[in-house]
Amino acid sequence: MTVVGVIGGGQLGRMLALAGIPLGLSFRFLDPSPDAPAGEVGELLVGAYDDPAYLDRLADGAAVVTYEFENVPVAAARRVGAVPGAAALEASQDRLVEKQLFRRLGIPTAPIDDEVTEFPALLKTRRLGYDGKGQRLVGTRPGTDPGYVLEGLVPFDRELSLVSVRGPSGETAFYPLVENVHAEGILRSSRAPAADAPQAQAEDYATRLLDDLGYIGVLALELFDVGGELVANELAPRVHNTGHWTIEGAETSQFENHLRAILGLPLGSTAARCDVVMLNLIGALPDTAALLAHRNAHLHLYGKEPRSGRKLGHVTLLDPSDELVLALSG
Predict the structure, then answer these.
(1) Cα 316 to the center of its chain, rounded Å
(2) 13 lies in which domain range?
């Protein structure tokens, strides 16, 4: 049986395995937590992400090693020859380097540092920011600190994201643009396909990134829509929360396509099956019976203990009414 090694054992690794098992794949995960959600669907090595002995065990006999979060130590990814490669990791781990990459490729971004002329603005840590962490609004220009980047606010109309996938031959596919809603820095909902979205512009930006990085696998690009023009916010070199709708809502899920890409298999169709809304379940578990009473609702729980602000699962609604989305969003 073909073994896939995964650095990280969270819900993204879990969903990778659930997509890969029907393809005859088995999975081995490295995570420091013995309670990692992916441990229920594959072999779990409990060890540090940067432990050479555990990394060697993870890679031993594996056809490929990938990762499910972008704060993997770059040296660890290099040691096991992880796919996607280290270049994308290095860019995504540093907000300033990420902005420089976008700009080098002619992709618009928010103003940064000395370019910021209007306040309030966002002061962000350059590293280890996710789900709204590592950033705060400031009303005046702060002192210079190399560990931070100052970012101007973008007057966006809506937040969009594009999930793309590229294989080793350069074969590339794109899912429809998705409209996202965040609260307190955490994704609450995604609607696909986004209405009247500049798909071609988003695909152009993603293609520049994929080709420049020699990328293999799924890459997500978060964007601001400003009057029909797109401004890049950040990239994620992995399967992404805004792509969870693809499990039931697309011809081929982002998880299966990531596996196809990193294993050198032909990519599957990225077409949406219908209109789809994905709702994150945050902080508390839902009433399962009440949720599943809606015929086109598909529930995914991640096997995590409830905690304030924690993503515990998601529900995907196929062709939902606005009333249903509003009721379940509350």
Answers:
(1) 17
(2) 2-82
